[in-house]
Amino acid sequence: MLEHTTKEFIHEHELIKEGDRIVVAVSGGPDSLALLHFLEANRLEWGVEVMAAHLDHMFRGEESYQELLFVKEFCSSRRIPFYGERMDVSTEMENTTGSLQEKARHIRYGFLGKVMKSVSATKLALGHHGDDQVETILMKMTRGSSGAGRAGIPLKRPFSTGQVIRPFLSVTKEEIENYCERNELSPRTDPSNKKEEYTRNRFRLKVLPFLKKENPHVHLQFQRFSEETAEDEAFLEELTWEKLNKVWNSTEDFSSLEIEGFLAMSQPLQRRGINLILNYLYKLRPSSLSSIHIYDVLGILRGKTPNASLDLPKGLKVTRAYHTCYFHFGELALTTAPYCHELKVDQTLVLQGGYRFFLYSSSSQVEDRTGDRIYISPDEVSLPLFVRTRRSGDRLKVKGLEGSKKLKKLFIDEKIPVHLREQWPIVVDSDDRILWVPGMRKSIYDLGEEQENSLVLQFKSNHLLGGS
Hints:
The chain has helices spanning 2-13, 30-41, 43-46, 62-77, 89-93, 100-119, 130-143, 173-182, 199-214, 218-244, 259-263, 267-281, 291-302, 407-413, 418-421, and strands at residues 21-25, 49-56, 82-86, 123-125, 156-159, 162-165, 248-250, 255-258, 307-311, 316-321, 324-329, 340-343, 347-351, 355-360, 372-376, 385-388, 395-396, 405-406, 426-428, 434-437, 441-442, 455-460. It has 15 helices and 22 strands. It is α+β, with helices and mostly antiparallel strands. The protein folds into three domains: 2-230, HUPs (Rossmann fold), CATH 3.40.50; 245-329, Uridine Diphospho-n-acetylenolpyruvylglucosamine Reductase, domain 3; 340-460, no CATH class.
């Protein structure tokens, strides 16, 4: 029976604890009315307080107002504290964007959160049941949800001054209706639940009966799937963040992804990594964003085309530029003002963009052996050394090649994106001879290894390529 199954579910998942103050969102329909009655009937056993909240959206005029009065009378006859309010959601919609259902949901949760705060409630109980869970998961999978998005309705989550809980997820609509009959509750019914123009109703009326015929306890299988998916995704998300933080950088203007390092991750983590990046960048994830877009981004990263772009919902753009992929809103602009900074011996120079230079008087002082290095003879160059941005006419005497090469040609040959070239650090001596273009080429002035009295110049960056 519903009572036994629900109590076991509540106990197993610790949905209710002694001392809880529980607000039940009650529409007047079978699900919420049965939940209110059930919690009220067991409040003394659990040592909790139970109260009801009802919001009339005023969609159906007098009919919906009568539902408010019905819930109010139901609570009054049982001495259950009641909090009700009327709000014309249709009028509110005139000044906002979004669907009517989305706005109504936003307003409803705002009202319920306000009630929770006013009574210092610890739990908000909602009447979603096992059939709702089946419908939700099927709808999500049909429209292409991925990862944690397939987990369905959470049995509990943080909200307002406490948590949202859903004690009826282990029982079916039929069990709830039987409970109402046994306890003579006479709930109100919403005629819109039978209209097939709503997606959920089509799943409810056409798909769910077939599944129940195959397995009368299918709702329990879907609930287990939801819980296991949520647990698995939480673990995989933590692992993905650990890997992703090594190849992904975010600034106020854009986020960048080092493609080679990203593709070294396992494919399941790659999918989740893109999903995490999108969740981070969107303040409110668009409903139109689906797993299809994640695979579109992966297609750019795994493809052979060095330059590619993709438009995602709400103005987010994905731009691949050779070895790096950028996520940005609006145009991608990475240029900065020209700079020129002196490199001082045994000191660190930190530049905007995550570039770091360390000039050591000997190799023995190099504690961190990561990054790239060159070895310079003080007798072959003019000190002090400088790091600057490129200038027109710059040429580099490339180590291992005859003659010199224009920096412009070097950037092209190395497939460096145009938007990165203006801020790329160039190491020169006091006579403005180019000694090194970090991440690309070293000059003939690099000794290749430490020699007597040589200086060691080390370079590290969050996103430039390895040197050569």
